[in-house]
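Consider one such protein record:
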Amino acid sequence: MNNDPRLYQMALTLIPKIGAITARKLIAYVGSPEGVFSERPASLRKIPGIGEYLAGQVTTKNYIAEAEAELENMQKFKIASVYYRDAGYPWRLKNCDDGPLLLFYRGIPDFNRVKFLSVVGTRNATSYGREVCGNIIAELAAKYPELVIVSGLAYGIDISAHRMALEYGLDTFAVLAHGLNTIYPASHTDAAIRIMNQGALLSDFHSTVKPERNNFLRRNRIIAGLSEATVVIESGNKGGALITAEIASSYNREVFAVPGRTTDTNSTGCNRLIQDNVAALVEKGSDIEKLLGWETSAEPVEPQNIITTPLSKEETLILNALSEDPGLGQEILGLRTGIPLPKLAGTLLLMELRNWIVVMPGNLYRCAVKWERKI
C-alpha cells in the first residue's frame, strides 16, 4: 500500500476535464483528495457544478495506478511538488482561484519571499528590449538582493530576464509549459541548470507532458500569479506577454509596461497596455520601486512596549504578518491574512490610532510594538 500523501493529490490532477478550480471544489466539499475517490458517485453528482459526467470521470478509471507511475517518474527525474494547502505553497498563488492543485519544481525555491517580479516580453527581442531588461534588473538587484525574478525561459525577453537575474545574484523562477523531465527550448539548458541552483524550474504539468501550444497559455497564469507585479518589455499586438499581463490584471496585481516608439512593431502591445490604462509606464527600476512602494529611505521605527490589551483575530493576523515582513501594503496584507479588504482597512486604521502600527511612505505598514508571532 502506497502511503505517500501525494498519491491522491496526484490522482486528482490526472482526471480529464477536472482542472484546478473543479478539483478545489471537490476537495472543499468532500474534505480531502482521498475522500474524492472513496465518495459514492451519487454523492459526487450532487456537488454544484460536478454533474453526472464529471462524477463518472472520477470512478471510471484507475487513476491511483497512474498516480503511482507518475510519482515514480518524479523520483527518477528528481522532481518535487507542493500541494495548494501546504504551508510552503506560494502564498500569492494560493489566492488565485485557478492556482494549480500541485506545483512541481526542480531546484531550491523559496516561496516565502515577499518581493517577486515577473518579467515577460516578445521572443524576438531587440537590443533595446534586452538593454532595458538588463538595466531594470541590475538597478533593482543592487537595492533588493532578496528579489525573485519570474519568467518563462522562452527566447527573447524571458531568457534575458533569467540571465540578468543570475548575473546579478538574484534567485529566478522559470515557469515551463511542459513536464520537468525535459527543457524547452533545448538551447536554454545551460541556463536552466544554473536556475535550479539559484531558484527553480516550475510547472503544473506532469513529468512527461510535451511543450504543446495550448500549454503556454496555461503556464502564463502561474507567471502572473506568483508575483505582485508583471513587467512587459516589448510586445507586438498579440502574444503570450499580453495574455500574462491580462491575467495579472484579473488577479488585481500591478502591471507595468516599457514604452517604445510608435513605429516599433515590438512595442505596439506595450504602448496599447499603457494607453488602455492596463499598465503603468515604467522606464527604469526606480519607477517600479516607487509604484510598488519599495522605497526604504524612511527612518526605521523603534518598537514600543508590548501590547497588554486583548487582541482580535484580525489584529493578531496583521501583527504576525508585519513582524515577519515589515513594510507591507494593504493588498499584500489582505493576501497574507485572508482578511477582506474593507474589514482590513478599518482594522488597520484602529491599530494605527492605538499606535500599534505606523504607516510608512508608499502606504506600507510596520509594527510599532514589540511582537512575537502568535498562533
